[in-house]
Design goal:
With 115 residues, the chain is an alpha+beta fold. It contains 2 helices and 6 strands. The chain has one domain (2-114). The protein has helices spanning 2-6, 94-114; strands at 10-15, 18-26, 37-44, 50-55, 77-79, 87-88. The protein has a 6-stranded antiparallel β-sheet with strand order 1-2-3-4-5-6. The longest helix has 21 residues, at 94-114. The mean pLDDT is 89.
Amino acid sequence: MDTLLDLNGSIFDQGNGYWIKLEAWQVDASKETPHGIRYSLTLHEPYGKRILGYDNAHAVKPPKKFKYAGRILAFDHKHRHASDKGAPYAFKDAPQLLNDFFADVDRVLSELKKR
């Protein structure tokens, strides 16, 4: 967790105008943040629009395939593209979060280069 917290406020240039912003801070553990960390990891296009993000700022609905009463709303989630409202993300620990995020950043930037 310390590495994630140490990255709070970091901005990293990804070339061709794309950039990453990392925010993370410690909070009291709760039902919404059992790991005690609030975070927002985002990839932005040259004009500033977010095109990929991992965060736990709001709840997202589980996929429609789970149609039962008492669904648990996920707070850890990712936005897979600019208009994505969010899909649940299974937070394991901070190193896995960073690995997953940077793997998605690499994938998105690679797809953009192919266009």
